[in-house]
């Protein structure tokens, strides 16, 4: 095949894509290629789309124009500031990306947890309160104290931006040293080393099979039952549990703290004829006799149930029974799941939208009942 | 292959019948398959067009001014010719056979997908990487969808690029600013292609169904 030489770039900028500290100054030059009939006086500069004042230009040769930039601010975008050399009619001849910023600061607040003693996830916070203005890379490293080489964590962003997940090959009953290195174009910073034993930071899955049911005809009580998380059943540990519950259209959770080691609990003092959402979580403390408190699991998926309605007619009652509501909810959830899979453009449809509609419905019911109705 | 007047009449009758709305006795679901997947492909291009608007907005803001200015129109450097161009002479476009029309789309999106994936590996912010990954997945779906339409119409899929794949850094821009220009043109071409594909598939929608029914019945060996 015929070899076609690539068209020469119209001009060359120097320096090309430099990295600079905030507050530094820079003199850049634009030299037009000999194939192009342009002179220094035919050129002008822009930085991030804004024309730079001619007072800062200087012609260094017949086809070379320079520009002086003083006391540079941090880059407007992490991809670099766009310094562009133009011909008189606005055409772009060449460009250079300026990376202006600060070196990183030591990452801080490293916290880690292990799911069922099988893995380790750590998160941290960047040291800088302000910005470095440059893209900063974080690397989590770990090693067994006293022996072993440094290992590098590979799976990032598993629990937020500044997090990493170590999925395997972790030893128990041995302290680990963990630290985070931050690096950008201007330098490197290393966090303090954190020392921990996997057994001291264990968490587990939320309790399974959470069931909430009525207690006979009692209007103000619900009974909650659950199973201890299966993953840790072979290990010696005591579990603590916590329950939280809220009324359907409220966002305030009530927490029951002193559940201890049991797998059932009765909630009392509830409102009759109301739908409640209940969640349970677990803390596997004292694994293998470790004295430290473990880490609370995530909350179980909310389970809904309703207290029986009292015989007195309360104002503004939803005519449908509470149990019918939970079946309806369940069906709707399944329907929306199906819709999401099989139809494009319906992604906003979902159980959350239905819940919002219910809240709106109850609110509008209340106002309707208040206006113009006799007590 | 079967020949004869009775066969021709039978085929014609079936074609006419299958175009009626509800016909439970004759299992027309596969025969209408190509028509349905053309519609789906058309819908997918509209969806991608919509997704691209958000992605391009975010990405151009990441590149910074002047790339995100509405009237930005940089020179199309010779190196940008690697990205397949959607613009084509109108008469040429009208005269394309179904096979050529589909093949042009298939080839273009396969190449564009390649370039987009390279982009994904280099881009800075987590939000952008996430959006890009999502878009690439949808674009992959479009390529598969077009391939499906071609197969159901009996057309062979276009062959991949000849020769061994170029090493990763082979076509990389020589500096960061030129790379930003490449990225800008990649997004522009994607936009133009999606706009053009909607018209391509609209055209195909009107032409395909009757011919497909006949083809399918013959393949069944009636």
Can you put this structure into words, describing what you see?
The complex is a heterodimer of chains A (375) and B (222). Chain A has a 5-stranded mixed β-sheet with strand order 2-9-8-4-5, with no helix packed on it. A 5-stranded mixed β-sheet of chain A has the order 14-15-11-10-19, with no helix packed on it. In chain A, strands 12, 13, 16, 17 and 18 form a 5-stranded antiparallel β-sheet that branches. Chain A folds into 3 domains: 11-101, Immunoglobulin-like; 108-200, Immunoglobulins (Immunoglobulin-like, Sandwich); 208-307, Immunoglobulins (Immunoglobulin-like), CATH 2.60.40. Chain A has 2 helices and 26 strands. In chain A, β16 and β17 (187-190) form a beta hairpin. Chain A is elongated, with a radius of gyration of 32 Å. Chain A is mainly beta and 375 residues long. In chain A, 26% of the residues are buried. Chain B is an all-alpha fold. Chain B has a single domain, classed as Growth Hormone, Chain: A (Up-down Bundle), CATH 1.20.1250.10. Helices cover 66% and strands 0% of the residues of chain B. Chain B is built from 7 helices and no strands. In chain B, α1 (5-18) packs across α7 and α2 (33-63) packs antiparallel against α5 (126-152). The longest helix of chain B is centred in the last third of the chain and has 32 residues, at 176-207. The model of chain B is unreliable at 11-31 and 210-222 (pLDDT under 50). Chain A binds chain B through residues 6-7, 9-10, 13, 16-17, 46, 48-50, 76-82, 84, 91-92, 94-97, 135, 157, 161, 344-345, and chain B through 43-44, 47, 61-67, 69, 74-75, 77-79, 124-126, 175-178, 180-181. Chain B: One of its GO terms (cellular component) is extracellular space. Chain B: Residues 1-25 form the signal peptide. Chain B: In complex with CRLF1, forms a heterodimeric neurotropic cytokine that plays a crucial role during neuronal development. Also stimulates B-cells. Binds to and activates the ILST/gp130 receptor. Chain B: One of its GO terms (molecular function) is cytokine activity. Chain B: This is Cardiotrophin-like cytokine factor 1.
């Amino acid at each position: 095949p015929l070899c076609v030489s690539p068209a020469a770039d119209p001009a060359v900028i120097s320096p090309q894509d430099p990295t600079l500290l905030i507050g530094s100054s820079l003199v850049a030059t634009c030299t037009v290629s000999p194939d192009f009939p342009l002179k220094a006086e035919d050129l002008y500069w822009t930085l991030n789309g804004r024309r730079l004042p001619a007072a800062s230009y200087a012609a260094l040769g017949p086809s070379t124009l320079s520009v002086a930039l003083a006391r540079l601010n941090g880059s407007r975008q992490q991809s670099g500031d766009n310094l562009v050399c133009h011909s008189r009619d606005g055409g772009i001849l060449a460009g250079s990306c300026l990376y202006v910023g600060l070196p990183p600061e030591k990452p801080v607040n490293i916290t880690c947890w292990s799911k069922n003693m099988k893995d380790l996830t750590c998160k941290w916070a960047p040291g800088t309160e302000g910005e470095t203005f440059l893209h900063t890379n974080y690397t989590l490293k770990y090693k067994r104290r006293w022996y072993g080489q440094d290992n590098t964590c590979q799976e990032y962003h598993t629990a937020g931006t500044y997090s990493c997940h170590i999925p395997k090959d972790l030893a128990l009953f041995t302290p680990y040293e963990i630290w985070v290195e931050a690096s950008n174009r201007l330098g490197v910073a290393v966090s303090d080393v954190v020392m921990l034993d996997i057994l001291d930071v264990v968490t587990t899955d939320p309790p399974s099979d959470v069931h909430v049911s009525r207690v006979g005809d009692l209007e103000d009580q619900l009974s909650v039952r659950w199973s201890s998380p299966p993953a840790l059943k072979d290990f010696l540990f005591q579990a603590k549990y916590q329950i939280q519950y809220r009324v359907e259209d409220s966002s305030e959770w009530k927490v029951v703290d002193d559940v201890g080691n049991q797998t059932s609990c009765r909630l009392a003092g509830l409102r009759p004829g109301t739908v409640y959402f209940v969640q349970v979580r677990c803390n596997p403390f004292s694994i293998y006799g470790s004295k430290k408190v473990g880490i609370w699991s995530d909350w179980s998926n909310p389970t809904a149930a309703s207290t029986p309605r009292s015989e007195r007619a309360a104002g503004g009652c939803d005519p449908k029974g509470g149990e019918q509501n939970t079946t309806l909810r369940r069906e709707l959830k399944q329907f929306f799941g199906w819709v999401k899979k099989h139809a494009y453009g319906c992604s906003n449809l979902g159980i959350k939208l239905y819940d919002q509609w219910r809240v709106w419905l109850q609110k509008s019911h209340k106002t309707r009942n208040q206006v113009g109705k006799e007590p | 292959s079967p020949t004869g007047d009775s066969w021709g009449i039978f085929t014609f009758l079936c074609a006419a019948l299958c175009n009626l709305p509800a016909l439970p006795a004759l299992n027309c679901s596969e025969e209408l398959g190509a028509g349905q997947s053309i519609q789906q492909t058309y819908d997918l291009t509209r969806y991608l067009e919509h997704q691209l608007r958000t992605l391009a907005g975010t990405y151009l803001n990441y590149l910074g001014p002047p790339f995100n200015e509405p009237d930005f129109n940089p020179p199309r450097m010779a190196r940008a010719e690697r990205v397949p161009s959607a613009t084509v002479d109108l008469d040429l476009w009208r005269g394309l056979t179904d096979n050529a029309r589909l093949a042009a789309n298939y080839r273009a999106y396969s190449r564009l997908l390649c370039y987009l994936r390279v982009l994904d590996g280099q881009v800075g912010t987590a939000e952008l990487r996430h959006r890009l990954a999502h878009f690439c997945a949808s674009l992959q779906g479009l390529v598969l969808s077009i391939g499906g339409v071609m197969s159901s119409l009996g057309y062979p899929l276009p062959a991949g690029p000849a020769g061994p794949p170029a090493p990763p850094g082979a076509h990389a821009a020589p500096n960061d600013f030129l790379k930003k220009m490449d990225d800008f043109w990649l997004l522009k071409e994607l936009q133009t292609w999606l706009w053009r594909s909607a018209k391509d598939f609209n055209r195909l929608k009107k032409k395909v169904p009757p011919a497909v029914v006949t083809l399918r019945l013959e393949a069944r060996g009636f």
